[in-house]
Amino acid sequence: MAESVGEMPDTCSYHRMHMGMAAAVQKGIPIKEEVVLPLPDLMIDGRLCVEMSHYAEGLYRRLGTRVVAVDVPPMEHDADGPRLAAFVERQVRETLIPTLEEVCGRPFDYGNLSHVLSVLKQTATIRNRCWEYFKLIPSPWTLWDYGVSIAPVFYLMGKPETVPYYQKLEAELSERAARKVSAILPQERYRLYWDGWLPWAFLGLFSRKMTAQGAVPICGRYPWEFFPHPEAIEPEPDPVHSYINLWFDPEIGPAHNPVRAVRFIGKAIEDYSLDGMVFFASKTCRMWSMDAADIIDELERRHGIPGVIIEADMADSQMVSEAQIDTRLAALFEMIDGRRKVRRG
Q1: What is the pLDDT of residue 163?
Q2: Residue 175 CA: distances (Å) to CA of 154, 170, 180
Q3: How many other C-beta atoms are found inside a 10 Å radius of the C-beta of residue 254?
């Protein structure tokens, strides 16, 4: 639908989904009721990536939707955090909150934001305990399992059901660990690091191709970015200040900085006993993966484990090649097996 109204096919596939949804709703084209998104009264353009401005411009141009922008620059160095957080906080207090109050017709509810952060802190704390189970060999769960469990931490942030969700998950992982149940059958052979977006529309495809070879994706930069240090969350006395500072944690957003990426992934290799790396290069989000080859080379030099790049997309099936997935994974497993033989002498 998006391409039929002029959106370029290599534009961010998230953008195209939203533009296609807006165009279809506007034109009265039938869509499954359970997936229809309401047209927005206001778009908050949180510019974490360059595509956000494209989103905002597209919705404004097509629908006349009002837009308020908040620039969130990536940190080049850890020391940049306080300065950038103060810059974002000024935008939120001086522009975003007044706009929200105008559009909604009521004062901003700081008390509710404190409540949201309190629930988030509980949820993310339990989530971090669940991460510890990835260190077990065999692992009782996979990165894909965690991928479909991101919503309680991020998209459903502050909802009362999020804490019970992770409590049940932690209990299940504890039981599986006690019984030494592996996430895959018949056995875990390769423990993998995954870099980039999760392939949301193709989790089943990637899962089947990996688990058939005994490969378990264990951790990755993108899903590890959501509030890795919940102990830093302070719901009181200033929830706005606390929330903004969470986004300038040194472990947040390393995709824009290869030096920090090498540091993060190198630690993950040691902590999670990883055998290899898969870098997922989204064809519609080149910014994330433009330094993937250099990062792989540096990590291979430092830690001696191989990596491959798979080019696909997180949503657009036209950009996913099963043959390429098979070829790249086969090459990775051959390299891992070869190095194991060398180490055994």
Answers
A1: 96
A2: 26, 9, 9
A3: 22
- The set of residues, in sequence order, having a beta carbon less than 8 Å from that of 13 and lying 6+ positions away, is 282, 284, 313, 314, 315, 316, 319
Q: Among 21-35, 155-169, 184-198, which is the least confidently predicted range?
A: 21-35
Scored b (16 or more CB within 10 A) or e, 278-295 reads bbbbbbbbeebbebbeeb
In this model, does residue 202 exceed pLDDT 60? yes
Interatomic CA distance for residues 192 and 328, integer angstroms: 13
Largest Cα–Cα distance of the chain, in whole Å? 72
* Coil/strand/helix, residue 13: helix
Q: Which long-range contacts (CB under 8 A, 24 or more apart) does 318-323 make?
A: 318/9, 319/13, 319/283, 319/284, 320/199, 320/202, 320/205, 322/205, 322/209
pLDDT in tens, 244-266: 998 888 776 555 678 888 999 99
Helix 13-27, helix 51-63: angle, nearest 10: 10
Q: Tokens 């290899």 appear where?
A: 276
Q: Which residues contact 295 (CB under 8 A, 6 or more apart)?
A: 195, 258, 261, 262, 265, 279
Return the DSSP state at 37.
P
Choose among 242, 251, 236, 193: nearest CA to 217: 193
pLDDT at 130 over 90: yes
User: How high is the pLDDT of residue 256?
Assistant: 63
**pLDDT given at position 57:** 84
Tally of CA atoms within 13 A in the half-sphere of 37 that contains its CB: 11
**Looking at the whole model, is its pTM more than 0.85?**
yes
Phi, psi (5° rounding) for residue 149?
A: -110, 10
| Non-local CB neighbours of 195 within 8 Å, separated by 6+ positions | 220, 221, 222, 265, 277, 278, 279, 280, 289, 292, 295
What is the Cα–Cα distance from 261 to 250, expressed in whole angstroms? 11
Q: Are 243 and 96 in contact (CB under 8 A)?
A: no
Cβ atoms 239, 110 nearer than 8 A: yes
Span 211-226, pLDDT tens digits = 999 999 999 988 888 8
CB contact at 8 A, 267 and 176: no
